[in-house]
Amino acid sequence: MGITKKTMLAVILTICGNSLITTSCTTAENDNPVVQEIDYLVLVNKTHKLPAYWEGALQTVTITNTVGDKVEAEYKAYAAYLKLKEALAKEGVDIELDSGRRSVAEQQDIWDRYIIKYGEEYTVKTVAVPGYSEHHTGLALDLYFILDGQTMYYNEDLVKYPEVWAKIHAKLADYGFILRYLEGKEDITGYAYEPWHIRYIDDVALAKDITARGITLEEYLQR
């Protein structure tokens, strides 16, 4: 699947139900679109930057959640999320997507606004440097849930229900997800425990292995 002399970025728009799928491709001399594959085990953290090719290769779905926010996610991660959502619904847990992919440009905008409003010291502690946020990948999803008809959206509310998160976390690996920022692993991941932040790795067996061992993605990749 080599790219020859002529290379350009093509955007293919496909309607999938009521969602928009955006596919970024390269085009070879014969003008047949060639999709560059992404690495579902890519490591993006405070010391590992998003690969340069990533934003041009990502295929995403954009949806609107129950509070009216648009959320973008890598298309396979979103499909797996829907299966996870369906399985949890059978146990009385109603999850929704809070956030998904943020472009590097969007992260830069957030960074700049925080610098102006809060100063550099606070910004460095609370906001990922543009290019170093796992949300750039489209594989990281933040969840919220609806409980007894009430939307639990804010972090300070979500942390009050560890029993709900236990049910959610127990199902993640079955659909190729891992809990990304584990409790007690802050020195490895660089982030505090976040029960809502899940990561798609596109491999159920591997997700189950990582989860069973109680390790982070950094530890699995030994990086």
Element layout with pairings:
Blueprint: E1 9-16, E2 19-27, E3 33-34, H1 54-57, E4 59-64, E5 70-74, H2 75-89, E6 94-99, H3 104-118, H4 120-126, E7 140-147, E8 150-152, H5 155-158, H6 162-172, E9 177-179, H7 186-189, E10 197-200, H8 204-213, H9 217-221
Antiparallel strand pairs: 1-2, 2-3, 2-4, 4-5, 6-7, 7-8, 7-10, 9-10
Structure description:
With 223 residues, the protein is α+β, with helices and mostly antiparallel strands. The chain has nine helices and ten strands. The chain has helices at residues 54-57, 75-89, 104-118, 120-126, 155-158, 162-172, 186-189, 204-213, 217-221, and strands at residues 9-16, 19-27, 33-34, 59-64, 70-74, 94-99, 140-147, 150-152, 177-179, 197-200. Strands 1, 2, 3, 4 and 5 form a five-stranded antiparallel sheet that branches. A hairpin with a 5-residue loop joins β4 (59-64) and β5 (70-74). The model is unreliable at 1-34 (pLDDT under 50).
Q: Give the C-alpha Rg.
A: 18 Å
What is the fold-level CATH name, i.e. the topology of the domain at 73-221? Muramoyl-pentapeptide Carboxypeptidase, domain 2
Number of strands: 10
Query: What is the correct CATH architecture of the domain at 73-221?
Result: 2-Layer Sandwich
Largest sheet: 5 strands, antiparallel
